[in-house]
Specification:
mainly alpha; 4 helices
Length: about 140
Amino acid sequence: MIEKRLRVAVIVADLFEAASGIVGCVGLLMGFMNVPVSVLEGTPFADFTVPALILGFVVGGSALVACAVTVYGLRPVDAVASAAAGCITVGWLTVEIAMIGLGSWAQVFWFGVGVAMIGLSALLWRAETSRRRLELAA
């Protein structure tokens, strides 16, 4: 029962991160997020095109793949995929904050989402391996 609840929590976190990354990508590319390009001063980027594509395809895409793997129950790859997507999210935010500074509560929030993805994945991994040990012992 706990494994099923953990699986649902991992799926929700992965879906949330995937949607956030993809919407963030579209928002930056289309300009409806109203983030001034001056934020990128001192970075290698002249505009938001490359960061937006990384956000959408790497950050959001990895979370979407992790969600799909977890939905289909591909054990133990599910927990590893979600943890990897969480690490990508945390890495993205770490680099972003290092490059442009901590300028928004949203950066802290999504950093926390990445950490939550990693933690939930670890709990799911533990539940899955415990269940397998019990099955093997029986």
